[in-house]
Every structure is written in C-alpha cells, then in structure tokens.
C-alpha cells in the first residue's frame, strides 16, 4: 500500500519506519527538510497515486486545521485523510464535513505508544465510516502490536480521538497514584530503598504495569529524581476529558484531581510532579525541566 505521511516528529518519524518495515511505501513530508522526503504538501500529493491516502501527524488545533485546509484544495474526490494526532473529537466532526464537501473521506485515529512504538507497536483507536476504515486495514495492521489486541474500530468519526482522550485521562490518574505513593515512601525514614520497593512491585502485584516499569527505569537513572524540577505540563486531553465528564454528568474524581495536581506543580516545586515529569519523559519523550 502507498501512504503519504505528514509530520515526522517523535511519533510520525517512527511510524513511517514501522510501516515501511511492513513492506508498504511511505512518502513523508515535514517542515524540517532534513527528515522530509518531499519539499511541500503539493509535491507529496503529486507523488501519490489516486485514490490517495494521507495520514496527518501534527499538533492538534491550528496546525492540524492548517493542514486540512491545504489538503482539501490539493486532493481529489475518493482520496482519504487520516488524522492520527491528538485532535479533539469535535474537530474531527468538523474536518469530516469540510473534506466530505469535496468528496474526500476522513478517519480519526487515536494513537498510543510514544517513543516505544517503533519496536513495540502502536495501540490504535479508530473512528469513521466502515468503508474508509476497511481501506486502511493494511496500515493499521502494520502499526499495531503483534497479537490480537491493540486495535479497535471504536465507532463513528470522532470516536477514535474520544477514546484516546479517555485513555490519556486514565493515564493521568495512574501516574498521579504512582507519584503520590513514591513521595510518601521517600518521606518515611524507615523506608531506605524506595527504588527497590518500586522494583519489587513489578512482579506478582495487582499494581504492576508498563508505567510502573517506566517509573523503575526513571529511578534507575536518578534514584531520588533530584535532577528534575517538580513541574509537569498537560497536553490538553486531560482537560477535554474533564470537560466531557461535566457535559455528560459523569463523575471523574481521580482524573480531575490528577489534572489539578499538574496545575499545582506550576506554582511549587512538587516532589510528586518529579515522578510525573519522569514518567512523561520515559514513555513519550516529553521535555522535563532541570532542578537547577
């Protein structure tokens, strides 16, 4: 299968490589000429055979809208656009209408896997018409982890990103729980090796998880996270999850508290947020701030 891929950053660049390893042709475009296969979006479209498939991996909001606006003038009826970034589900509905007027299909794909996806595969949550989703199956199969899990056609347009948003909200709460436990262990004088306590939880306990493994990896690099400032950003999905909960009258006390804890980290140097920052860096390569 032939695919155009727009956005070759931490995720997009690795996705291009994984799809190519599966035997497909990927032509990538990025504003950085050092990683781009072509010089412009127009050149990308020209090099693809109709009907074209283009996967967009750029930041949510204005950047994605700009790409959609340009693509709807470059593409033809029967072409298909996939938004694999972290767009808000309401933007997906808007983009599907905008492209649909031109006869261009649209699918939204929530993608999880971070910097580890190249080797481990990416979990995919997809929204869109069944015909368009079926057309993309070779790419989904190339990207997903081996085995029966890691892919779902979640529903209509917007369902993929809504599912990924909830996934990230749960992630917020899980990281917050690990961070709170870590700070309490660090505080008690009788516990002399917090890192090894965390390591002991990796097997045989009900709280073992990949996040726990990443926490141990972070502590192996910096046993007391002394190199980090207790500051953690939020990427937007946590806020959208809480807003959706309010709109649907669904109580989310743990996720909401974890979001507010990140806001607090921007006022003080929070020990818990050192662990949150370390975990975000471990799984997604997100930037951290030095303690000095």
Summarize the structure.
InterPro entries: 6-PGluconate_DH-like_C_sf (IPR008927), 6DGDH_YqeC (IPR004849), 6PGD_dom2 (IPR013328), 6PGDH_C (IPR006114), 6PGDH_NADP-bd (IPR006115), 6PGdom_BS (IPR006184), NAD(P)-bd_dom_sf (IPR036291), Pgluconate_DH (IPR006183). The protein is of the alpha/beta class and 292 residues long.
| Strand neighbour order, sheet with most strands | 2-1-3-4-5-6-7
Give the N-terminus to C-terminus distance in angstroms: 49 Å
According to CATH, the homologous superfamily of the largest domain is NAD(P)-binding Rossmann-like Domain
Number of strands: 7
Write the element-wise H/E pattern from the N-terminal end onward.
Answer: EHEHEHEHEHEHHEHHHHHH
Major sheet description:
7 strands, mixed
Query: What integer is the average pLDDT?
Result: 94
Note the total helix count: 13
Count of spatially separate domains: 2
Query: How much strand content do the residues show?
Result: 5-15%
The CATH topology of the largest domain corresponds to Rossmann fold
CATH architecture of the largest domain: 3-Layer(aba) Sandwich
The first-level CATH class name of the largest domain: Alpha Beta
- Return residue spans where pLDDT drops below 50 for at least 5 consecutive residues: none
What structural class do you assign from the helix and strand content? alpha/beta
CA-based shape: elongated
Radius of gyration: 20 Å
Helix content: 40-55%
């Amino acid at each position: 299968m032939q695919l155009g891929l727009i956005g070759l950053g931490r995720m997009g660049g690795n996705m291009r490589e994984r799809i190519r390893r599966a035997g497909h042709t990927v032509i990538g475009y990025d504003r950085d000429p050092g990683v781009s296969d072509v010089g412009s979006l127009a050149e990308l479209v020209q090099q693809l055979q109709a009907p074209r498939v283009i996967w967009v991996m750029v930041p949510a909001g204005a950047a994605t809208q700009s790409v959609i606006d340009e693509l709807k003038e470059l593409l033809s009826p029967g072409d298909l656009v996939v938004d694999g970034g972290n767009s808000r589900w309401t933007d997906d509905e808007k983009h599907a209408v905008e492209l649909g007027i031109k006869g261009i299909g649209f699918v939204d794909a929530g993608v999880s896997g971070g910097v580890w996806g190249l080797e481990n595969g990416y979990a995919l949550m997809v929204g869109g018409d069944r015909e368009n989703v079926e057309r993309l199956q070779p790419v989904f199969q190339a990207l997903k982890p081996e085995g029966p899990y890691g892919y779902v056609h979640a529903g209509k347009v917007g369902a993929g990103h809504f599912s990924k948003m909830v996934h990230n909200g749960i992630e917020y709460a899980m990281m917050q729980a690990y961070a709170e436990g870590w700070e309490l262990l660090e505080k008690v004088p009788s516990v002399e090796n917090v890192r090894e306590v965390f390591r002991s939880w990796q097997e045989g306990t009900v709280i073992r998880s990949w996040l726990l493994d990443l926490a141990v990896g972070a502590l192996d690099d910096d046993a007391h996270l002394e190199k980090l400032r207790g500051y953690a950003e939020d990427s937007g999905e946590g806020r959208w999850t809480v807003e959706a909960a309010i709109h649907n009258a669904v109580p989310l006390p743990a996720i909401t508290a974890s979001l507010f804890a990140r806001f607090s980290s921007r006022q003080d140097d929070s020990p818990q947020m050192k662990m949150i920052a370390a975990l975000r860096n471990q799984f997604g390569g997100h930037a951290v701030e030095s303690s000095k």
